[in-house]
Every structure is written in C-alpha cells, then in structure tokens.
Design a protein that fits this description.
Elements: H1 2-14, E1 22-24, H2 30-40, E2 45-50, E3 67-70, H3 73-83, E4 86-89, H4 94-108, E5 117-121, H5 123-129, H6 132-137, E6 150-152, H7 155-169
Parallel strand pairs: 1-2, 2-3, 4-5, 5-6
Helix pairs in contact: 1-2
Length: 170
Amino acid sequence: LPDRLTRWSMDREAQGKSPFTICSGGGPGIMEAANRGAQQAGGKSIGFGISLPHEQGVNDFIPEDLKFEFHYFFVRKFWFVSLAKAMVAFPGGFGTMDELFESLTLMQTGKAVDLPAIVLFGSEFWNSFCNFDALVEWGTISPDDLQLFRIIDDVEEAADFIIQTLEKTC
C-alpha cells in the first residue's frame, strides 16, 4: 500500500500536481512497514514518534530530517490530523482508537474537512471490535456518518479508494 501510494504521488509530482507523503507514527510493526514501503518505492516518508518509556524512538526507514518526536499525544495527533489527506487504521489498541475516533469526530463535525479518506483495514477486527450499525440504531451517530470511513480487506482496493478519493478532492 505505501509503495503504491508513493509511486502514484511521485507520478503526480512529475505531472506538476501536488504530491502526497506517507506519514506514520514512526514506530515498529505496521508503522515501520509504511515507512519502509515509501522508501522502497524511492520516496520519503514522515515519522511522528511519541516519547514513551518502552519505545526506542522512530524506525530507521524515516529520513533524519523527517523524524519528529512528541512528548504529548495530543500534539502528535494535531499534526497528524491537520496535515493528513487520508488515514489508514490497522487493528490496534488505545492509541489507534484515540486517533481514529478523534479523526472521525473532527470529520463528523466539519473540523477536519481536509481528511476525505479513512480506511479501516481488516474487516474481521473492525466488525468484531465496533458495531458501527448499532451506533446508528442507538441514535448516537447518523447513518451518514458511516460514509466517513470504509472497511477494506484488500491492499489494492485500499490504494484504489485512497487514490480515487484524493484525485476527486485534492
């Protein structure tokens, strides 16, 4: 996914259009995979790390000049949301849920109008974790709010959705 998006972005830039840059939380695992994919495609990526006692800093696939480390989660989240044009959330814990639901809330309330594409990757996890339809049934969100994100299982489908959305909106 990050390699395809990076190549697409570099093609856009070559055509004189605004490019996009992969940005991750900078850590290991799926975040490292995002930064590695961008690097392997010949692009750069940004890493927004967070100072935690058990973390050792951002991963090695982020250029030095694009490594940022934050002390507070809310500051990191601000930079993520204020700059992002798309978000891909993989199964995660409290930090993932905090960033995801804050982003959805900002989109729902019109505060994050520049974040048109949110992908929740892995339907088995997302459908078992949160019954989004129940939120509609209970009246806690509107049926239209289900359009703020898309649950996807396929990497190519996720890339196509992000590219098509960004081509229409940016």
